Amino acid sequence: MIRLRAFRPGDEPALRAVYTSAIREVACHDYTPEQVDAWAPLEWDDEDLAAWAVRMAGVQPFVAEIDGVVVGYADLQPNGYIDHFFVAGNAGGRGVGGVLMRHVLAQAEARGLAELSSDVSVTAQPFYAHFGFEIVEQRMPVIDGVALRNALMRKLLRASPA
User: What's the whole-model pTM score?
Assistant: First the structure.
């Protein structure tokens, strides 16, 4: 059974492992080895780890667990932006992404957000489209000098009653 909970200090290494496996085991089918290495390096130095911890504390993700093991995470920023949405490579096809996305959508509704947006990898675009997101713009962000294709995707939500 998939259990969702709030981010807790100390989750950072498990979230980094999910992030890395999602890219290295799943997104690797849509990106070159050079792009994967830039996006999810195998080695993290102390400065990278510290920056990761600050980033995770800042985005305050929802964490998905199966049998107490972190298998995915996603966030929802106050402006409706989804900054991180990752499912561990070995947890694919187990419903983790769907549980996380339904939670994000429920949180957006509870907060009265008008829309959601995210910069979405080529790999995740069909998943987002399944939940009603549409491509607004194709993009080519650069990470460590390497360009990676993604798309800004948006989902318009019903406005909450006044």
Answer: 0.94
Domain harbouring 112, CATH code:
3.40.630.30
Q: Are 102 and 85 in contact (CB under 8 A)?
A: no
Please say whether the beta carbons of 133 and 116 come within 8 A. Answer: yes
Give how many domains the chain has, as a whole number.
1
Where do we find the tokens 């000098």?
145
Let me know if residue 162 belongs to a domain. Answer: no
The DSSP 8-state label assigned to residue 30 in this structure reads T
The predicted-structure confidence for 16-31, as pLDDT tens digits, reads as follows 999 999 999 999 999 9
Strands 85-87 and 69-74 turn out to be antiparallel
pLDDT in the model for residue 158: 73
Residue 77 covered by a domain? yes
